[in-house]
Amino acid sequence: MYSDLAGKVAIVTGASQGIGRGIALRFGQEQMKVVINYHTDTSEAEQLAEEVKAAGGEAIAIQADVSKEAEVKELIMKTVQIFGGLDVLVNNAGIQTTCSSHELSLEDWHKVMDVNLTGAFVGCREALKYMLEHQIKGSIINMSSVHQKIPKPFHAHYASSKGGLKLLTESLALEYAPYGIRVNTIAPGAIATPMNEHILSDPRQKEDVLSLIPMNSIGEPKQIASAAAWLASEEANYVTGVTLFVDGGMTLYPFYLKG
């Protein structure tokens, strides 16, 4: 636990389930004030807010589509109005679809890019404006994927969005380091979330995934949440512009283990 996080204000986008849910709960345990952003599922988000409160934090659920600039701006504004500030932003909202690249429509390309990359940029921009204006040495965490490094056939739009997020993070980290604002990325591997349920519920597909992970286990949202809590805390106050891979060794060229 990180005592300096108590009372700080955090927004977690796409927080009603999966990794975002895990991060919100961990922030609650850290006694933070947590804005649970969600897109459609009000009941899940409100239930999570109650769980965050039970864990020791404060929480409110706010609906916003992060692919819409005006809604991201309103999300930041409401956060400041309700909790009186903003110290931590976690750009976690993300989507992916599967499609052969030669059949990928521009509409589907934009849909993924608008959420995964443009939405994260707008969130970063608005958080930076607030932090600069109020001289807050805040922390921004962008949720990427091992596929910012590992190519992903049939997911060219998703992999491209995550590769772009890496350089967005590094560019912002360099630009705003003089102001004490840190910008980092977490890149999860195979994590047990609703997004991956269709794969992990199939024994054969799950075994195929496990063969790519040297630690031979599927990750849990709480493991990503631990990384997020550390990056948000003063324990990481000299860390900016990095990608923290939380992947069980998935990016370590595991096929070399076969000799």
Automatic annotation (TrEMBL):
SUPFAM superfamilies: NAD(P)-binding Rossmann-fold domains. The keyword Transit peptide does not apply. GO terms for molecular function: glucose 1-dehydrogenase [NAD(P)+] activity. Belongs to the short-chain dehydrogenases/reductases (SDR) family. The lineage of its organism: Bacteria, Bacillati, Bacillota, Bacilli, Bacillales. Keywords: Oxidoreductase. Gene3D superfamilies: NAD(P)-binding Rossmann-like Domain (3.40.50.720). This is Glucose 1-dehydrogenase. PROSITE patterns: ADH_SHORT (PS00061). Its EC number is 1.1.1.47.
